[in-house]
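Feature request disguised as a bug report, sorry. It would help if multi-protein outputs had a clear separator. Right now it looks like this:
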Amino acid sequence: MAITDASHTTNQTHKKYDRLLERAKALRPLPTAVAHPCDESSLGAAVDAARMGIIAPLLIGPVERIKATAEKYGFDLGGLEIVEAPHSHGAAARAVELVREGRAEALMKGSLHTDELLGEVVKKETGLRTGRRISQCFVMDVPEHDEPLLITDAAVNIAPTLADKIDIVQNAIDLAHALGVVDVRVAILSAVETVNPNIPSTIEAATLCKMADRGQITGATLDGPLALDNAISLQAAKIKGIHSPVAGRANVLVAPDLEAGNMLAKSLSFLANADAAGIVLGARVPIILTSRADSVKARLASCAVAALVASERRVDPSKAVA
């Protein structure tokens, strides 16, 4: 999951993230079940977001270990509730229970593996499944790029099928709307911009676009297949003779598989000094993914994104995933 570190952001401004944080701080704090926050980065992220008024965390894990971590790193846990759970697996299960009980409207990953938390989320009887496929989305703050850039899926679906991609795309579109993006332009990425029977991702891209034409995917303009250059560069699109509302202006990038999505996000982070806020969508509540290598700003932005998603569902229940 880790794709950023503080060294990449020393001289970087975060105007796009700052706007997200300001919107989130204007909302009521999001009740958030934080599973096993037993290291500096995960506990610090929850405490920082709480102090900014973005989330109202329920810290779930071994109480004495959480308190010891707070004491070691100087975190003030005053006013924050700690819920006992003996280990990381128990913390993940209890966090999901608190959502089902209505005490939390979001989940947040602590110092446990992503698979451990999501394993509890997807359990049929006791989890938080919906009719949608769960997928991950990075909200990237890329220097010199005017608006946040969404990249999906880079952390959950390893080799998504066409059916999976329908939900992956719709989850990203819904997220973009929750972030206040009015004109959502989705580029379905491949290695080339023409349909090639020997490259399955190009066929799937074309199919997804036709499904959008038929109203099976809603809320955005889709185009694909598009190579990365002509998805984000107007000049590249012009040179290749591609004319569409998306080419050169995409604000959502859908990768053909996890490997491509992960490498794209890491490339932006390490080569373009971008930061990435991570969130998982498609469950009953948004799931905040943070990493030890994330910058403080990226961790806070992940919480802000979840708060905006939850607020959108609260204001308009029809936008909640069924």
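(second protein starts here, but nothing in the output says so)
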Amino acid sequence: MAGGTALMLMMKTGLYRPARLVSLRSVERRYSEIAEEPDGLRIGAMTTLSALGRSPLVRREVPVITGALRTLSNVRVRNVATLGGHLAHADPHMDLPPVLIALGARVAVVDARGGRTIPLEALYAGYLQTTLRKGELIAEVTIPHQGARRASYLKCTARSADDWPALGVAASLTADDGFVREARVVIGAATDTPARLAAAEKVLLGVHVDETVLRRAGEAAAAEANVVGDAHGSAAYKRELVRVYVARAVRAALNAGE
């Protein structure tokens, strides 16, 4: 048990009935730290979302995360919730998984026998399901140096700005004067797991982005995404959101830092 913000709610509803809980609060300080390493930004799984949002390193290296955290739930939750718990919960409505996948993040997981590192996009297997093996815990997240990459995250909520999103879209691009050399487009909340949209990425790759290209990328994303409806919107509504917000997110990424 780290922050326990999601776990306690699930216990109250009877979804989980654990025989015992083990607190992780006393693990080594390394796992609550944010540090710059040769291969990128290393973030311990016990880092609270508030600490992540306040970090000067995060603001300098990956400001898209700082921006996303401003409307991620509320300050009371962010003060308690941890990055590792946020990722391991595997609720598709979480804000950070699409952002971190777009940034190429990797997750280090550990168990009694050792550990392994996997791309974050390989962590998710379905609704509230991960590929973590029995006994494995998320230890750290590494975000590669972004260099000239620009990124954005847009969310659409059916209620207040800090509510669960009906759709979240993250875009990360390497571009020169609007000519895209590399693109990652990832959605969350509208699908059972965070999903990269290869068709939309293909539309963007190797072209100069204009309104026509943005419209084609949005249409490709809407056609590709395996959208599901829920209390935040029907599948048809969310598909239209995908069409519109993918184009907006790509435009926002191209304009990031200007």
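Even a blank line would do. Unrelated, but nice: The two ends are 41 Å apart (CA to CA).
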